């Protein structure tokens, strides 16, 4: 079949992709969750966690579908497909903010570890 896509390179299992998406969605916030929920009762804490997890799932699924459609597998490259003349600037700003966010998350992990 000449319309069949040919994939070259390493294969990734569904379990590995799922683990990566969950890790990306939760981030360092999962480490501070017990401290954040310590002052609340059980019911509001569970409801808050469920709502935030549902929002994470919805956001990740939108990104996964858009990445598949445009074959752009990082957020900056995906933003490059926005219509209009601003897309290169938006891509650059996103890449810079992603780098800053990664730095701050790693700093947050060090703070959480130091406080433990």
Describe the structure.
The protein has five helices and no strands. It is mainly α and 116 residues long. The longest helix is centred in the middle third of the chain and has 29 residues. It is globular and about 45 Å long.
Biggest sheet statistics: none
Beta-strand portion reads under 5%
Helix content, binned percent? over 70%
N-to-C series of helices and strands: HHHHH
What overall form do the CA principal axes indicate? globular
Number of strands: 0
Termini Cα gap = 58 Å
What structural class results from the helix and strand content? mainly alpha
Number of helices: 5
Overall average residue pLDDT: 82
Regions with pLDDT < 50 over 5+ consecutive residues?
none
Task: Explain briefly what this protein structure is.
The chain is mostly helical and 116 residues long. The protein is 72% helix and 0% strand. The model has no long low-confidence stretch (mean pLDDT 82).
List key phrases describing it.
0% strand; 5 helices; mainly alpha; 116 residues; globular; 72% helix
SSE layout and pairings?
Elements (H helix, E strand, L loop, with lengths): L13 H13 L2 H8 L5 H29 L4 H5 L7 H29 L1
